[in-house]
Amino acid sequence: MSLTTLVSHRAGTGTVLLLLATWEALSRFHIAPSQFFPPVTTIMAALWSLTVSLELVQEYVVTLWRAGAGFLLGAAAAIFLGALMGHYRSIFNLFEPLLEALRPIPTVALIPAAILLLGIESRMKIFIVAWACFFPVWVNTMESIRSVDSELLDTARTFKFTDPAIFVKFLLPCAAPGIFTGMRISLAFALMLSVVSEMVAGDTGVGHFLITAEDAFQIPQMYATVFSLAGVGYVLNWLFVTIERRAMPWHYGVPRSQGFHEVL
Amino acid sequence: MTDAFLEVQDLHVEFGKRERLVAIESVSFRVEKGEFVSIVGPSGCGKTTLLRCVGGLTRPTSGRVLLDQKEVVGPPKGMVMVFQDYSKSLLPWRRVLANVTLGLESLKDLSGSQRVDRARRYLDAVNIRGFENYYPRQLSGGMQQRVAIARALAYQPDVLLMDEPFASVDAQTRCELEDMLQKIWRQFGQTILFITHDIEEAIYLATKVVVVSARPSKTLDTISIDLGPRRDQLTTRENRQFLELRHRVYRAIKE
Questions:
Q1: What structural domains does chain A harbor?
Q2: Chain A partners of B57 at a C-beta cutoff of 8 Å?
């Protein structure tokens, strides 16, 4: 690793530590009201005890299952519709006005309606997550499919592949990098919307835990939950990127050991 | 006149909605089974459009293409096209072997191992050995085009259409590929339609040369090439007859 890379990596971690140290100082020396702004060390201690007692872990199981289910449903629908709309002009014309009208609506604005129609438990939350996850994946899928080179399609046709085979063997693999990008964006939304919907209604999940902590004046526990969300989100993203790299070796560079040859 | 194996009859192609652009005015020629026909003409004269019509990828505005007396309305069975830009035609997410077996996947009557055997045979025929597990982008341009050709050959088409396949490689690689193609044609006996803007390449490879004018294209000349089956990059190109043919084709295009 070069010196610049090393320095910039360390600098990155350093920035976070500096921020946390500033927070600790502001709180310990009572520059900020320590009742509402507890020291980082107190927050970390609360986080530790919440984790060890499995209280927070339990809530995460619920939140993540909702986020995961919603993510998969939203992404699946988005890939299906996006692929068809990217390839068939007629299907595009049919659905584009509707979807572009729905896309700008902030998903949270739909929560009240969702509560009326779907209740306050998991069903509503999964729907809200699916809705939010749909749009980034849909846009990316559609554009990726649309921008597939015509030479690739000509190749498919000259070898007499039928439409379903063309999707599976040509279009979707070609669009895969774009689709994965859309999914990575939606992943963040999945956790976000799951937590937000739990804050608004229901009595399980991390979002509900957060609101309860605030109501009960357990301020360190409240902040601890927020910190945990940063950590969980980071890990989820890292997991997804790892899967992405494994799934598309041709796109992310093949191992150097295979090298490059010129024959004749 | 007996029916030819492949026939292009008064092909006329226009594009555009408001302003009509005539790409091909009138092109006709006949191809017998097993012939190697080069189509040569100036750049932009619609040669690719012509080949696409023969290959069923584009519908002509009028006129028709007959393969074995049947009209071509979509990519016909027994005919495969090799494109100029191999980097956009090979599948980057598949390794070389899987790219070559691609064409065989729409054929129902072959097992997986049969496909692999066939793919290996044709990779051998194009002189690619030991690169089965490489991704296309790890290979040089010349090698990638060989893989694309092996893929088309593995399908075992009766007719092979080639759209300036050697235009994107350097001159020396081009000579090697030309000889490789000749060897394959002598070995497997397909009917080949080969588009090029390189007059010498057209004459060197073919048994018949169709000369096409600039846009809107017309058939200018159809020339039989009797240079014999054994051709050599050095001696054939210095041959008196070769030079006369070259002269004739060049003059036809320039007019």
A1: 39-247 (1.10.3720.10)
A2: 154, 157-158
